[in-house]
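Lab notebook, page 48
Experiment: co-folding of the full assembly
Goal: obtain a model of how the components sit together before planning crosslinking
Operator: M.T.
Materials (sequences as entered):
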Amino acid sequence: MDESFFKDRYLDHQRAGELPSPQLIEDWLEGVLQFLFPEFSAVKFSTERAFLLQYQTNDLKLFTILDSLSSRLPKSAVDIRAAFEADLPAVYDSLSEDAEAILSGDPAARDRTEVVSTYPGFYALAVHRLAHCLCRLGVPLLPRMLSEIAHQKTGIEIHPGAKIGRRFCIDHGTGIVIGETVEIGDDVKMYQGVTLGALSVSKDMARTKRHPTIRDRVVIYAGATILGGDTVIGEDSIIGGNTWIVKSIGPNSRVYYRVPEKKQ
Amino acid sequence: MDESFFKDRYLDHQRAGELPSPQLIEDWLEGVLQFLFPEFSAVKFSTERAFLLQYQTNDLKLFTILDSLSSRLPKSAVDIRAAFEADLPAVYDSLSEDAEAILSGDPAARDRTEVVSTYPGFYALAVHRLAHCLCRLGVPLLPRMLSEIAHQKTGIEIHPGAKIGRRFCIDHGTGIVIGETVEIGDDVKMYQGVTLGALSVSKDMARTKRHPTIRDRVVIYAGATILGGDTVIGEDSIIGGNTWIVKSIGPNSRVYYRVPEKKQ
Amino acid sequence: MDESFFKDRYLDHQRAGELPSPQLIEDWLEGVLQFLFPEFSAVKFSTERAFLLQYQTNDLKLFTILDSLSSRLPKSAVDIRAAFEADLPAVYDSLSEDAEAILSGDPAARDRTEVVSTYPGFYALAVHRLAHCLCRLGVPLLPRMLSEIAHQKTGIEIHPGAKIGRRFCIDHGTGIVIGETVEIGDDVKMYQGVTLGALSVSKDMARTKRHPTIRDRVVIYAGATILGGDTVIGEDSIIGGNTWIVKSIGPNSRVYYRVPEKKQ
Amino acid sequence: MDESFFKDRYLDHQRAGELPSPQLIEDWLEGVLQFLFPEFSAVKFSTERAFLLQYQTNDLKLFTILDSLSSRLPKSAVDIRAAFEADLPAVYDSLSEDAEAILSGDPAARDRTEVVSTYPGFYALAVHRLAHCLCRLGVPLLPRMLSEIAHQKTGIEIHPGAKIGRRFCIDHGTGIVIGETVEIGDDVKMYQGVTLGALSVSKDMARTKRHPTIRDRVVIYAGATILGGDTVIGEDSIIGGNTWIVKSIGPNSRVYYRVPEKKQ
Amino acid sequence: MDESFFKDRYLDHQRAGELPSPQLIEDWLEGVLQFLFPEFSAVKFSTERAFLLQYQTNDLKLFTILDSLSSRLPKSAVDIRAAFEADLPAVYDSLSEDAEAILSGDPAARDRTEVVSTYPGFYALAVHRLAHCLCRLGVPLLPRMLSEIAHQKTGIEIHPGAKIGRRFCIDHGTGIVIGETVEIGDDVKMYQGVTLGALSVSKDMARTKRHPTIRDRVVIYAGATILGGDTVIGEDSIIGGNTWIVKSIGPNSRVYYRVPEKKQ
Amino acid sequence: MDESFFKDRYLDHQRAGELPSPQLIEDWLEGVLQFLFPEFSAVKFSTERAFLLQYQTNDLKLFTILDSLSSRLPKSAVDIRAAFEADLPAVYDSLSEDAEAILSGDPAARDRTEVVSTYPGFYALAVHRLAHCLCRLGVPLLPRMLSEIAHQKTGIEIHPGAKIGRRFCIDHGTGIVIGETVEIGDDVKMYQGVTLGALSVSKDMARTKRHPTIRDRVVIYAGATILGGDTVIGEDSIIGGNTWIVKSIGPNSRVYYRVPEKKQ
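Observation: model returned without errors.
Model output:
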């Protein structure tokens, strides 16, 4: 091989800062989800103490991850870990409501166990609510690594910065993209292939709202694309499949395409 | 952590019913696919007996899985296992035809080995035909867990309840959603991002036909969305990409959108 | 089980040619990516020699893979391996430019480390540029197995035959399909769900150009479908989301759908 | 490397007959021991059916092992497997007595659980009783591979051909060697470093009794060496530590060395 | 299989109390040894915090182990864990002296690194000093499981109850047996195959001193057997190889066998 | 925990030099043994090239190990590796003779396959001949780590410095200790528990001959202890079990203990 090329790669490796181990992050995520939902867990705990030890062992993984990012954290790893733990009950309550909403909304769902253990939309949302929590605490990189784990597993991409209301229902979900400054109200339902994205993407807009706002009780059918930071979809609106929306839509609207022409 | 929150999680874990291990299910599925198609198998068997033992060892995994669901099975695990085994040759024949259909339909496919070992559409269909078989035998949860394995790997989501005819061809496939009460005829071809879904979703419709019927020899291009239990796409029709269809289409139809306007 | 069915499966296994082990291929790919980008690597190397040994150990994996395909290679495994190594610096330079382009184009991207370690579009492109290199060297099956690894992980499917110019930017990406005879110029940007596909698919077209050509600086928004071997999208054009394009578009064009009708 | 040397090694590998996998043998052995003694098992079974499935899965491993040796078996693998299973209850009863004998004989032993889970003498005996059973059924190689597993783990080497009576007590045990044609009565106790070996070793003696006979209730202290096929240690004798015995000893004997000289 | 036999085994498994997982115990032991001696550790820690997290994660394993034994502990798992941690510095100091003593006593030893990483005598002693510490704290079963790990690895068996002075030197060591109530002074050196055992073993002697006392600066050569609770080997004595000692020996003694007879 | 104790451990870890990974060493050793003897290998190679690649991959491990020791090597890692490879055929020939000698000497051995795959004496010797080769090339630490792997597995401890002639036969072997400056002639046979050790051990004797010399065709029975650098056992002598020898013995001698006294 070209020697200087090889040398350069070696120097790159020497210069590279430490990153948290992807395997450790995956293990910790799995551990939190197993703690919150027995459906994700293959283990039965014979005592409450054993359950606590399992929790603590997993918790040390978060600490290890935060520690490897410590130079870039806004607060100490200790404080962030504590704040995350304090938020966990609220995250759990929110996810319980999400599971119930999916169950009551999908005729194919048999029970909550099936929703938690087999619905990719629920999994993606569970990861998002955890990642969003860490994002709000100012943790860099980790939230994005978490959301990519869910993305790879489900095909659903939710930027950890996105704000999502209660009882959010994703049906099927593959291909969904939800951008960093999206805001979604309560009781929203969304199908596969929906994009909530940015209209234009100059780098200096990093701190402005670039993605749409979805109000309460909106339904967005498969393949709809809604773009732009000023775009607001009003309460109780229904957005038809495969639509392309770049301007705000008032409350109670129904937006759809005409049925296509047929040629026989 | 909040003590009552922790206590509640522990009680949840104590109350949770037994579920079949996801790892065991994945292992079994891999084993069946390796049995049916040498392309999935890294092992060479030196004797027929060794091959049989491999089969039986894998078969015991299915038994273990069924056994952990036994309280919810319509028949004994023994009977269901036997019925599944009896169906296996027909599943194999069907998948052989599927592979041939993909090979003869895709100019990029070099040979059957390439189709079986690298086409996500074939993989998703192979898992579906096995899951559908278990679904018809009344096995709960397992068929959905199988279809989610394929969904995670391929981005193709086929509900195990869907009825799919012979020589079904999926090209690319990411984003395809095929609902629980879909019926698909023979020699149908379908591209990525196609949805065969429900129009409305009130929970009391769980036992009604909510998803469309696709007749023989229909071709559905990328991104088409076809919705509704009464919607029938007639024989030999071609559905254009990104179309949105909520009513029946007669045989031999061609449905497409006009070419979009250009602005220079 | 039906005896003749079982016997036939056994004979299938006996007849099956040797295939490179999927696990070995995955390990090698991971090794190359770790060599090129420290962001993919959890290991620190204390000496340049250790780094070299790591490289060589991984390189032997490629040799093993090529060797198992040797009867189907156009040149010796030794020659192909050498040619691949000679191409690696150019592949690296190209990927470095890709990472920079993503970073400067996406307001949500914080730094190059985040792009390399969490952007599925970058990962898919990295795998593609390696697979394309092997494809040009005439290696069968392996390039497709590589592209499927990336497809499974990212939902982005790029056929290893596709020719892609410099500074290619994929945003989000789930659902993207790029066909075998696609040609893409420099500085092209593409969003999720875009298809660059074939219009018709008769098997005898295997050696003809069946997929579109995209010229420099084109932007293609989410869900656009561009089909056909004669279809050329001219320089500096913008293709709107969810469009369906089967004819050539001149340079500097903007193609979009009208905003859909609203019904209140 | 020397080319002809390398070529010869390759030809050796090609010529080599199939051997049962050491890993499979270890797994099966662990499985049988876990079946017989919950102390060896980390898993709790929620139903009797699950326990049975575990047993059957392990049993298939034995079948696979026997099958790979089939050309050298005196009966079919099916018959040998069945005969082994039929012997298992007797082996278990015998081992239960052994554990009780160790417990009642060693003041340091707290309970049967401690004996089964931590006494190397019990482990070596458990493996021996299984290996001896297979040895009597005419299985080649496997019994020796089993006894070597125990030898490596405990430093106790018992040839699978040795006949050992009931309630055999090994204390400590490291360095014990028990030869192929040894016969040991009931209620014998033996300490570490004891050899029951052959006096002379010409190859044509393979089918003659070359190792000693130990009658009921004999105690043999650490480091004693007893050699020869005609050597019989009579009932109720005590053999002192570090003794060297090559002739028969009558019943009720006590054999010891004088206390060594002291030099001050 | 015999049905009642199978049923009995199942009931045995149901009745069996919980035991700490052997794997967890092995992991914890490895973790403590790695913490104390970098020679046992393959990992470099980039920060002190990372090192602390590693320690704490391992510490939780001890807690989990103690917890599974909680019904049989004399104090709470919390208290025992704390007491063990408080003892750790003293254990470390003691082991440091042991390593130095081995290094200065064995001409074949090159440096402390070689002693720590390759001397089985040091390994066995390291495990013993940890196990003895837990033994004194009243922990059941675990100390014996630890000493068996060392026994399996080194062939050296030291009962966790044995009291061993400072700068203890084991050379080679295979076959050494040191009983429960042994007391060993400072600067003692011992070769392979030495037994410090009990003379007689009636079960009611469990709480009496059954094993010998070795005073300061005694050297015991290979294969010596010293038995009995009243047997004391006086200061500065040398015990020759293969001797058999059942009575006390005064200080400064040299005990040996005559050189054996030769027959030409 | 005591803070300064913890801090000191951390500093120890920081100061510790790099050591070759024990896992890598074990993997390499297994690879060499599998290369030399198909009995150790579970894999069949379909082509000579595949076999070569396997060899080369393993060889890189040796290189990696040597590299991590490079500051302490007398020659470059490249040269040492080449010298080792050049010695390999002679090592193989020697081991082939050893296997034949064991087979023809032990009535219990059925065939060469059984000897290679189940005889601990053969395994220990195989590891020794490799370790001795590296020892002569001046490699530090690694030879001792190899001999400890064999010691742990077999209970046989052979210092890598020991010089051992052709057709060396170890029967059983547990407890054998062979010191650093031992010299053993051709056709020697040795049983378990034999020590060839040093008489006295002052540290300044590191470079002198401290261990005995055993001439051709000597047989040494179980438990014999032969000590001292000036001690020579003459040709064709037989050393009885449990003997203690500290002076030279002429050729053709027979050394034994009287049969012990009996007390009835």
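Interpretation: The domain at 14-155 of chain C is CATH 1.10.3130.10 (serine acetyltransferase, domain 1).
Next step: discuss with group before ordering constructs.
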